[in-house]
Amino acid sequence: MFFNFTFRQYLTNPHRLADDLQTSTIRGFRKRIVFVFLAGLLLFGARSWWGMGTEALTPLVATTTTADFTLARFASFIGSLAWSIIYISFHFFGFAYIIHLLIKIPYKKLLPLQLLVTSLLLVEKALIFLVFATKGGAANYSFLSFGPLAATYLESKYMILFLNQLTLTTAVIIALQYSFIRAFTDESKRKSLLWTLIGIHLVLALLTASVGFIPIETLFDLIFDGGGVQ
User: Fold this and answer.
1) d(CA 37, CA 212)
2) Helix 95-103 crosses helix 107-135 at what angle (to 10 degrees)?
3) Looking at residue 179, what is its pLDDT?
């Protein structure tokens, strides 16, 4: 038997997706993969072209020539496209492999689940971009996360960046993953499954927050201003 993979049908019923994968063969999955990657490229490219995430380039307006600034913007745009592929690949292939290693579920069975998860993350980013574009400005923290609240009461930049990674979408994703994966696990293991999923997301949030401490502005200065031989 065959079944068609659709986002609308399985986003609200991941347990049914798990049941269908165990009894039937999936159709139309590769087309959905291509669609998600193309949508990600378009979204990340639009965000970069609009200027979201390019704050580190602002000082170059005053310290470099127009040609250098244009080159930096173009490099940033290309970098955002490359990052979209890395971002989608990690959440699609990488996260599925992590779950496969920790929970011992067949890797290929997890890929449809993670395609749903990746599409949710792209929808979240698209919503944030739409709101910022409508307002004509951007903020460092997502209004769907604990980031703005943490920035109000905490002084630790690392904790603020960490809490900024914990969004409403994160909770939805954990619920989605739990509903899907429990169909492959015994009743006795379902409690530990939930804590395992929460732990994975917390560890990834901690690692992502660490990326915020990479000195991007210094790197751009070295490349476009002081990095050459004088």
Assistant:
1) 25
2) 140
3) 92
Question: Rounded to the nearest 5°, which phi and psi values hold at 2?
Answer: -125, 155
Instruction: Collect all residues with Cβ–Cβ distance below 8 Å to 142 and sequence separation of at least 6.
Output: 124, 128, 148, 164, 167
pLDDT in tens, 15-61: 899 988 888 889 889 999 999 999 999 999 998 887 776 555 555 54
Cβ 205 vs Cβ 165: under 8 Å: yes
What is the spatial distance between Cα 135 and Cα 131, in angstroms, rounded to a whole number?
A: 6
Total-model pTM: 0.84
Vertex 90 angle, CA 10 and 121, to 5° = 45
Record the tokens describing residue 222, joined without a space: 């070295």
Instruction: State pLDDT tens for residues 156-212.
Output: 888 888 898 899 999 999 999 999 998 888 777 777 889 999 999 999 999 888 876
Angle 176-178-181 from CA coordinates, rounded to 5°: 105
How many residues in the chain? Answer: 230
Asked if 29 and 20 count as a contact pair (C-beta separation under 8 A), the reply is: no
Residues 6+ apart with CB under 8 A from 71: 224
| CB-CB contact of 181 with 103 (8 Å) | yes
- Give the span between the Cα atoms of 53 and 142, in whole angstroms: 12
Pull the structure tokens for residue 219: 């790197």
Nearest residue to 193 (alpha-carbon basis) of 27, 11, 18, 42: 18
Residue type, 116: L
Q: Residue 64 and residue 71: Cα distance in Å, rounded?
A: 11
